[in-house]
Amino acid sequence: MSGIVAIVPAAGVGKRMQSAVPKQYLTIENKTLLEHTVHYLLEHPAISKVVIAISAEDAYFHSTSLSGNTRVVIATGGGERADSVLAGLEATDAEWVMVHDAARPCVRHDDIDALIATAVSHNDGAILAAPVRDTMKRGNAESGIETTVCREQLWHALTPQMFRRTQLLEALKSALEKSLNVTDEASAIELTGGAPKLVAGRADNIKVTQPEDLALASFFLAQRRQDNGLEESK
Questions:
Q1: pTM: predicted TM-score of the whole model, two decimal places
Q2: DSSP letter (8 states) at residue 169
Q3: Which residues are registered as beta bridge partners of 126?
Q4: Structural domain of residue 34, as residue ranges?
Q5: What residues contact residue 143 under an 8 Å CB cut-off, 6+ apart?
Q6: Mean pLDDT, consecutive 10-residue segments, the chain of 234 residues?
Q7: How many domains does the chain have?
Q8: CATH number of domain containing 188
């Protein structure tokens, strides 16, 4: 399959990173997280273009290597993730789209392959996800433990998440019109009665959220380069 458009919402400020710049513009080896993410997506043979939704006040994008790339389309994002994804959807007419976090640079092509294979064979698309491994606790307002939550059938939602463009567009518009809480694209599909498929992905597909995540992402990127080099030498 080819001609898939990847949408990367990148209009956020990443307050939890405690950084002077939005987290998507933090660097690993002189390359921003956004560049790591988008360049790797464009290396996948099934992805034709990447739509990046940036803030109208973005002062950093045009100094990156992505500026001027003919396979990169820029859209003006909004205050919330759903607004930015919607802007990205309206900037393309592709049949299939996959939405991926700007600050999730460590995804692997093998996982993207598995996601595509599942999404195109399922009415409600699919998402990468990782089974919950740790004991889960539900807290109360006083930071005490209220109960231990059974972790069976619990998954961490990852990205990319892949859907038919028209289906996701309609689901997001409906949710926003009703002021419903949309935390990821799958939740918008769920609100319409859909049930996207879960595709088990690698746990090292981390999202850089806290300051300590940057070093971890650097390690995982180095490991990916090493693994890819070993594959190419076979």
A1: 0.93
A2: H
A3: 162, 197
A4: 4-233
A5: none
A6: 93 70 93 98 98 96 95 95 97 97 98 98 97 93 93 94 98 96 96 98 96 96 90 58
A7: 1
A8: 3.90.550.10
